[in-house]
Amino acid sequence: MVRALRKHFLGNQFERNLTFLAVPVIFLGTFTAYAIGLFTVEGGVILLASNATSIGIIIAASVGYRRGGLIAAWVSLFAAYQGFYAEWAFLGLSSHSLTGQLAFLFDQVRLAFAAGASIAFGTIAYIGGVLVHRGYNFVRHRDKSTQT
């Protein structure tokens, strides 16, 4: 039981390492997409940016499909959120001092909220990716057994 839980949390070592190497790319990609206007935020109170959430969910689902580990799925979603908030802090709050921008970026309440959302959405996306992988394997093995 413990081994199965460890496998789901940590995943395949190669896939986990690949995902953790991709985290800076996810962060910078989300930051850049918001900075150049590829992703936009329509006014109001913004708790979670929809584009960052979508990108993070897609990546977390692919981590589940590749058996990269639940922690890697959470971190990849969190990196997408941080990319959005970094763009907001450094480009959206450009009139503030660097200290104020960093205080916004590393606000404990916002970090906790983003972490909670990363765990919730990342878990759901990861499970979806695992189920798609299992379904694909089931169909593939069923097709092989009916052909012989």
DSSP strand content: under 5%
Radius of gyration: 18 Å
Question: In terms of structural class, how would the helical and strand content be classed?
Answer: mainly alpha
What is the element string, with H for helices and E for strands? HHHHHH
- Described by the principal axes of the CA atoms, the overall outline is elongated
Helicity range of the residues?
Answer: over 70%
Mean model confidence by pLDDT? 86
- Main sheet properties: none
Low-confidence sequence ranges: none
Keywords: Membrane, Transmembrane, Transmembrane helix
Structure characteristics:
148 residues; 80% helix
Draw up the topology in text.
Elements: H1 2-10, H2 13-35, H3 50-65, H4 70-92, H5 98-105, H6 108-147
Helix pairs in contact: 2-3, 2-4, 3-4, 3-6, 4-5, 4-6
